Sequence to fold (416 residues):
Amino acid sequence: MVLCVGYMGRLGAVGLRAARPGLGMTQGRCLSTLGLHHSRLLLARSELRALPSSSRSFFWGSSKPAAPVEKTQVVTNEQSILEPTSTLATGPLSPEPTTALNTASTSSPDVVLPDVTVPTEAVPTEVLPTEILASIPSPLNYGDLALLGLASWTPAGICRWGMELIQVSTGLPWFWTIVGATFASRVLLFPFSVKQMQSTAALAPYQTDIASIRDEMAEAQKKKDMIGMQRAALRQKLIYEKAGVSLGGMALAPFIQLPVTLGMFFGVKKLCDLPLEQLKYSGFEWVPDLTVLDPTYTLPIIATILMNVQISVSMRDMIASTPQMGHIMNFLRILTTGSVFLMANLNSGVLVYLISSITAMIIQSATLRQPAVRRLLRIPLIPEHLRAASPPMRESLKYAQKWWNDKVNDARAGSR
Fold:
């Protein structure tokens, strides 16, 4: 039929060309093409009418029922298509479909795909874990703090650079990074602490002479006697040489320890005050955010208790010839007790540093008090008769009152 219709179309075009001599080759070719398109539309319409009445028709008019063989073939194809789609839903199909898929195929005119509905249960509605993890900032890399202007050659900048090195190299959470950096700083300062204890223990037998020399220097300073001050300084130098202690070495240890201690404090405080986004995820359940204050006052109270423990441990090696040190330690106890409210205004990360630093100092003091450790590190043992007991708080208050009265009397005498 297609050949007949196409042939008739060509004959029509030839006839028109013969009837109208004015038509050119191009116009005749267009008429032939229109006849061929018309024949193809007639063929497609006749084939669509052969489909079953349940299939979708895109043309108006009634369709004739298809042969039984063709209907069986279409049903078989529909079943083969519906079988894989039945595995999409885990429960019964919803009576009100949410999505309709138009699966009409144009590749083969013999098969028409039915409408397939996807139930509501098949659509995932839960939040994916990746969306939650996307809110967490990425870990730091080497040089990130330098790009932020937080790493420099100042003590605080060097300490921050060291914390970055520990965190990036080990992958530790920031809570344990601060703890590890604090203990690492105490390890670096350990040789200077040992040197200071060696000098203090070596000068213990000469504390009486040193105390008299200091009183002599103070008296000469009041009288503005330069010769007397030089004579007292010379005697003090001879005592230090006899004990094997260097004045420069004793003065060097505090100057090295102080920058590191303050550098760690201000280094951590700067990171928490900005804040550095990574510090908001500390990695420790009890202190989840290092950039905020502790609303429970737990960290300030722990820091205060540890400060008092550190004072008690250090007072055990106090020398009897310097009783004012015992009173100073008692006043420090009072100050630390009242400092709870001051430390409550510090970030949690700073308090973690303070607690870690005090804990490291307690362990160091307790370790260096052991006789075996002292002999190993060549720290002289302090004799028992040179050790002084901790004075009670009442005596410390009387000492403070006497010291204040003496200062007032000296001021009045100087004004006359």
About this structure: Confidence is low (pLDDT under 50) at residues 1-44, 50-109. The radius of gyration is 47 Å.
